[in-house]
């Protein structure tokens, strides 16, 4: 269950919209879902980025393509998107 601070941060991410759509120049505010970066291990503390349903679970999305193919397709890494998220929206605790 997400804490109050997490919920507030997730709302900020949702408000900004899909970070990949933004990066691709589709603009801000695409309705988005929270994607957890899994490498950190513990899901509760995993970093998160906002992705629209298509870029999240769709045929051109990170789960649809798989992380490797996704990163090849867009010529950027999950980490690049995380950095951009923190740059545009701020980090969860700062
Ligand atoms: Zn998108
Ligand atoms: Zn995801």
Walk me through this protein's architecture:
This protein is mostly helical. The chain is 50% helix and 9% strand. The protein is built from six helices and two strands. A two-stranded antiparallel sheet has the order 1-2. The two termini are 21 Å apart. It binds zinc ion (2 copies). One zinc ion (ZN) binds next to β1.
In summary, what is this structure?
By secondary structure, the chain is mostly helical. It has helices at residues 4-16, 19-23, 53-57, 62-65, 67-74, 78-89, and strands spanning 33-36, 48-51.
List its traits.
6 helices, 2 strands, binds zinc ion, 94 residues
Topology:
Layout: H1 4-16, H2 19-23, E1 33-36, E2 48-51, H3 53-57, H4 62-65, H5 67-74, H6 78-89
The protein binds zinc ion (ZN) (2 copies).
Output the helix-strand order: HHEEHHHH
Strand content: 5-15%
> Can you tell me the residue ranges where pLDDT is under 50 for at least 5 consecutive residues?
none
Largest sheet: 2 strands, antiparallel
User: Shape from CA axes?
Assistant: globular
Number of helices: 6
Helix content: 40-55%
| Largest sheet: spatial strand order | 1-2
- The computed structural class is mainly alpha
> pLDDT average, as an integer?
91
Distance separating the two termini = 21 Å
What's the gyration radius in Å? 12 Å
Q: Tell me the number of strands.
A: 2
Bound molecules: zinc ion
